From TrEMBL:
The name this protein goes by in its record: Amylo-alpha-1,6-glucosidase
Domain (Mannosylglycerate hydrolase MGH1-like glycoside hydrolase): residue spans on this chain: 310-618
GO biological process per UniProt: carbohydrate metabolic process
Source taxon at top rank: Bacteria
Length: 729
């Protein structure tokens, strides 16, 4: 992922597009909402704080359309009672009350007499809010409410910490009795507009605030509504209060409809049920409907856009749960596959997308990410996912449609990916402002030698070779289904050639693992890493080496108690607080868990499952973040938070579902219309699990699994007529 948290352009020179360390997400408990291409970051009271290093705001297409929002009651900031994002991720609810107030003539109002409830959601480029004020005093009270707002139209990269030599022009505000329109003319010749509408009309409305005064008898309440729309296209005839109710119904219905595709999961552990429901709701909140189908945006706040690698891995991790996600990802990335060479975008024909941005800085080329292809693994992962999708669904029709894209992706591997013709795929940026490291660990210091010296490119990552191996095998399988026998035979031959060369060049006998990478001189980076765990997803490693690789990953220097570290303790650049050099990433562990299960290490996969569930237990909303620090687990303490971790994050949300698949040995056979469990295990925190509506070829089955000591009994609860359940021990 393009975190830019610790990237640099040259040794000692800071990267131009960082996530500023002062923009900490961990120091304050923030709430996030996301719908479509809009997302919001709010504090616990529902306000948007504005200031240096604060990234709160309402964002649309990588631009901050609302940079400040605050509500005062009786002239002071109200007291927070509670706030939460509801489990379905649609509504933010905040409860507030008044502080002790001294009136102008000595009148006094003690605290906790006025109750304020804020209810907020996003729908179709609009942020809706309802404010309810109720008087719980035995005397009449006057509620004085002031809502202040600000729109700076900062590009997302500015909000992240980048500076710009020039900006566009703010236009004069347009104000009526109940509406304010704030606009900005960007240097990209685009006008961006924030329109606020209030109901009932405020007593006073300016370009910065709306003022209300309500006389409330004892026990009475009053409602006010306002909405913030990004780039309004047409006037609205209905009032905000009616639009609030209609929008809330539509938002809930849309999320319920999309998530209904997924298999449902219920267990004997209620806390785990909370965590898995949050996972599923986060996944479907982050899905954005494209013309090509649903596409998971990477995460909030920094990555709420289309990423290639993130979406491909998210689709892999959720393939058993909802294959429609993978279908949408494959179709979208096929449509946006690079057609020509473009060094500015690190693009070459056949290459698969890394990232899309829509903000002013991207449009102007101030950042290179408008359509950016600087990812070494997205292309083989695309072909790899296509093979997995076919195996899961039997959907030959989609394979026929995207077959030219698969061929072009494989051609890119042969022509551009293998830069020096040695059979390995390497990366090296062509744009000096692009990413230095182009694997999933894209920090500037994430690829290094045993003495800590940074590797110089072109760099061949170990896991990328495994992805290429799997991609060739997938292309062979798809090719045979489409009658391309000669093509398939050639891909199988190239895959076997790669397997032999990989084991000869990457294996480090004294470490019992595969080298992190080969540098530009073909010297191995003799460093233990979680990257090597991704190799287990495939059969590229010779069978005699798998046990040693697994043992190293599960050793206490690597396994923190929460999960496997990106870099184990003892390596030169190990730092549990580093973005990629000692932290723990949930998705990384999910992929390793699937690899462990692939090679029959179900108990080890269950240990990862336990660690990830325990981490979710200690995390706000039971939500696994993008990453957390890699400190060794201490009893009665949760994992140490990483300061700028995104939450929610799509591939982190997909982690627990993927670990369910790994421990159950769950797979699907569309030809036989069968669900298969191979040596299923349930971790010790789950006595029972029910999987509802597992789907194969339109048929569905519901099964209940019960742990009996070290074994699992499986009962079919309900099924359509033709579907089968097969169990292998």
């Amino acid at each position: 992922m393009d975190s830019q948290a610790e990237t640099q352009t040259h040794a000692g020179e800071p990267d131009g597009f960082p996530v500023a360390a002062k923009s900490l997400l961990s120091e304050r408990r923030l709430h996030t909402l996301k719908q479509g291409d809009m997302f919001g970051v709010f504090d616990q009271t529902g306000d948007i704080l504005y200031g240096d290093g604060i990234a709160d705001g309402l964002y649309f297409h990588d631009t901050r359309y609302l940079s400040g929002l605050s509500m005062s009651l009786q002239g002071t900031r109200p007291i927070l009672l509670s706030s939460t994002v509801r489990e379905n991720n649609v509504m933010l609810s905040v409860d507030l009350t008044n502080t002790d107030i001294e009136g102008p003539e000595g009148q006094r109002m003690i605290h906790d007499l006025l109750h304020v409830r804020r209810s907020r959601f996003l729908w179709n480029r609009v942020c809706y809010e309802r404010v309810e004020i109720r008087n719980f005093d035995v005397e009449p009270r006057t509620a004085v409410l002031d809502i202040r707002f600000l729109a700076d139209f900062a590009d997302l990269f500015e909000a992240r910490g980048s500076t710009r030599p020039r900006r566009g022009t703010m236009r004069a505000p347009e104000i009526s009795d109940a509406e304010v329109k704030l606009s900005y003319d960007g240097l990209d010749a685009r006008r961006r507009t924030t329109q606020l509408r209030f109901w009932p009309p405020p007593a006073e409305l300016t370009a910065q605030h709306a003022a209300y005064r309500f006389d409330l008898p004892p026990g009475q309440r009053v409602l006010l509504h306002y909405e913030v729309e990004c780039d309004p296209t047409e006037p609205h005839e209905t009032q905000p209060n009616r639009r609030f109710l209609r929008g809330a119904v539509e938002a809930r219905r849309a999320l319920r409809l999309s998530s209904s595709r997924a298999a449902a999961i219920a267990t004997s552990n209620e806390i785990f049920n909370e965590a898995i429901r949050r996972c599923v709701c986060d996944i479907y909140m982050l899905l954005t409907d494209k013309k090509t189908g649903p596409y998971p945006y990477a995460g909030v706040p920094w990555f709420s856009t289309a990423f290639g690698r993130d979406a491909l891995i998210t689709a892999m991790l959720t393939l058993w749960l909802d294959p429609e996600i993978a279908r949408g990802v494959l179709a979208y990335l096929a449509r946006h596959q690079a057609q020509t060479e473009d060094p500015t975008a690190d693009a070459e024909p056949g290459k698969i997308l890394h990232e899309v941005r829509h903000g002013e800085m991207a449009e102007l080329g101030e950042v290179p990410f408008r359509h950016y292809y600087g990812s070494i693994d997205s292309t083989p992962l695309f072909v790899m996912l296509a093979g997995q999708y076919l195996e899961r669904t039997g959907d030959v029709a989609l394979m026929t449609t995207i077959w030219p894209n698969i061929e072009r992706a494989v051609e890119w591997i042969d022509r551009y990916g293998d830069r020096d013709g040695d059979g390995f795929v390497e990366y090296g940026r062509r744009n000096k402002d692009g990413l230095i490291n182009q694997g999933w660990k894209d920090s500037y210091d994430s690829i290094f030698h045993a003495d800590g010296t940074l590797a110089e490119g072109p760099i061949a990552l170990c896991e990328v070779q495994a992805y290429v191996y799997a991609a060739r095998r997938a292309a062979a399988t798809i090719g045979r289904r489409l009658g391309r026998t000669a093509y398939a035979d050639r891909q199988d031959h190239l895959a076997e050639t790669l397997r032999v060369a990989f084991n000869a060049r990457f294996w480090i006998e004294e470490l019992g693992t595969f080298a992190l990478a080969l540098d530009g001189q073909k010297k191995p980076c003799r460093v233990r890493s979680s990257n090597a765990g991704h190799i287990l997803l495939t059969d590229i490693a010779t069978p005699d080496r798998v046990p040693r690789l697994v043992a190293g990953l599960m050793h206490r220097s690597s396994f923190s108690g929460w999960g496997i570290r990106t870099i184990p303790e003892g390596e030169a650049r190990y730092n549990p607080m580093a973005y990629h050099n000692g932290s723990v990433w949930p998705h990384d562990n999910a992929l390793i868990g699937l690899g462990l299960a692939h090679h029959g290490y179900r108990d080890e996969a269950a240990r990862l499952f336990r660690g990830m569930f325990d981490a979710a237990f200690h995390t706000d909303l039971r939500r696994l973040p993008e990453l957390f620090c890699g400190f060794t687990r201490n009893r009665a303490e949760g994992p140490v938070r990483y300061p700028v971790a995104c939450s929610p994050q799509a591939w982190a949300a997909a982690t627990l579902p993927a670990l369910i698949q790994s421990t159950l040995g769950l797979s699907f056979d569309p030809a036989e219309v069968a669900v298969h469990f191979q040596r299923p295990r349930l971790p010790d925190f789950l006595d029972q699990m029910t999987l509802y509506n597992l789907e194969v070829g339109g048929d569905k089955v519901t099964v209940r699994l019960v742990r009996v000591e070290d074994e699992v009994a499986i009962n079919v609860v309900q099924r359509t007529q033709s579907i089968q359940v097969q169990i292998t021990n």
